[in-house]
Structure formats: structure tokens, C-alpha cells
Amino acid sequence: MINKSFWKGKRVLITGHTGFKGGWLSIWIKNLGAQVIGYSLSPITKKNFFD
């Protein structure tokens, strides 16, 4: 069982928060009362084939 009082008011750093798992983890922990801070790498930009 998850103890909501444990997470309430905690600051949590999530790496990869823009990905699938990190995104859901961010929402879940924020709903438990934590302050979520995320870090992720910027996407690699490649020239489009049609440009």
C-alpha cells in the first residue's frame, strides 16, 4: 500500500519525464502530493527528408 503522507510535500526529481514511463510517474507522484521536477534531454533534430 502506498503511504500518501510520505510523499506529501516532498521534492522529487524525475529524469526522462517527457517519456512514456516518466510522464506517468510524474503524474502519479504529483497526485500523491509531491512537488515534481523533471529533467530530460532535448530531442535530436534531424533534417526532414522532404525539406
What is the fold's blueprint, element by element?
Blueprint: H1 4-7, E1 11-15, H2 20-31, E2 35-39
Parallel strand pairs: 1-2
Mean pLDDT: 89
Largest sheet: 2 strands, parallel
The whole-angstrom Rg is 15 Å
Along the chain, the helix and strand elements come as: HEHE
Contiguous low-pLDDT stretches (5 residues minimum) are none
Output the number of helix runs: 2
Helix content: 25-40%
Strand content: 15-25%
Oligomeric state of shown chains: single chain
- Termini separation comes to 52 Å
Q: In terms of structural class, how would the helical and strand content be classed?
A: alpha+beta
User: What is the β-strand count?
Assistant: 2
What is the molecular shape? elongated
Organism: marine metagenome
Protein name: NAD(P)-binding domain-containing protein
Provide tags for this entry:
single chain; about 50 residues; alpha+beta; two-stranded parallel ribbon; 2 helices; elongated
